[in-house]
Amino acid sequence: MEIINNNSENSIDKFRNGMKTLKQHIEEYLSTAEISSQEVRKFLQKTKVDDVLLTDYLIARNYDAKSAWDTIRQYGECKFQMYPELFHHKISDATRYLVETHCVGVLKNLDNFGRRIVFSDMSKWDTTKTSLDDFTVATVLAAEVFWRRPEILQNGIISICNAEGFGMAHVAQSSISGVKRMTDIAMYSYPVNMKGLYYFNMPYFFTIVFQIFKPLYPTMIQEMMFPCAYNQVPEDILKIASPDILPTWAGGNLSIEEAAEDIEFYEGHATDNGLM
């Protein structure tokens, strides 16, 4: 990705043209569209004059103004109109529980291409204590805190999931509406480029759910999905990340406690971003 601190004439022109076009998209929408939510309108008006924020959107979308605009609009509509209950401003008890038990989180080290690695572990998901929406809330908070980090803006992220232990209680949580909410927010509301989705130790029930939901995703996302069954060597992930940074369930050499950031990592960044 070509970034703005590359002071070539081409890079500067791409930035200027992208910024101009992005602001035109916002202004046109504000002046012509019927916006039912005043909160969405306020968000767009504020965003339009925040050049630093708009620059981050452009960098993450490789200076594609239309893609940056679509992401901004989707974020505003999800946060203020469609799913406001999922956008918490503090680390909730459920989110703290999910992170502390290493049910969800981020690994300490980057992959071979400088990308952040986020993870989820179905074997640690106790459905009597947390729901799919709690998962979504934790994902939203992590995105709010981390998406503007340089390595994420420039390189994107990959996701790894340990599907071991996924059973009927988890199937009951996996409604189409719940998965749609998570997808709308996690994949389309932030200018974060997803570079790969890796699934390990897939049991029968998870495989069935995976096969049901996979066709609902765009082809581009489907092509990034790498399923791995029980007792299958996770060759795909080992092509892009050293086993010395991965948990054992992903073919690595570390326990999840050694591989993952702890709650203090989130608290520190949340404080820096005014979310504590």
**How many angstroms separate the termini?**
33 Å
Structural class: alpha/beta
Whole-number mean pLDDT:
90
Indicate how many domains the architecture comprises.
Answer: 2
Number of extended strands: 5
The profile of the biggest β sheet is: 5 strands, mixed
Q: Which oligomeric form is depicted?
A: single chain
The strand order across the widest sheet is: 1-2-3-4-5
With helices defined by DSSP (H or I, 4 residues minimum), what is the helix count? 14
**Beta fraction of the residues?**
5-15%
N to C succession of SSEs: HHHHHEEHHEHHEHHEHHH
Helix content: 40-55%
Contiguous runs where pLDDT drops below 50 for at least 5 residues: none
* CATH homologous superfamily designation of the largest domain: CRAL-TRIO lipid binding domain
Radius of gyration, taken over Cα atoms and rounded to an integer in Å: 19 Å
Explain this structure.
By secondary structure, the protein is an alpha/beta fold. It folds into 2 domains: 9-82, Helicase, Ruva Protein, domain 3; 93-272, CRAL-TRIO lipid binding domain (Phosphatidylinositol Transfer Protein Sec14p, 3-Layer(aba) Sandwich). The chain contains 14 helices and 5 strands. A 5-stranded mixed sheet has the order 1-2-3-4-5. Helix 1 packs across helix 3 (51-60), helix 2 runs antiparallel to helix 4 and helix 5 packs across helix 6 (132-146).
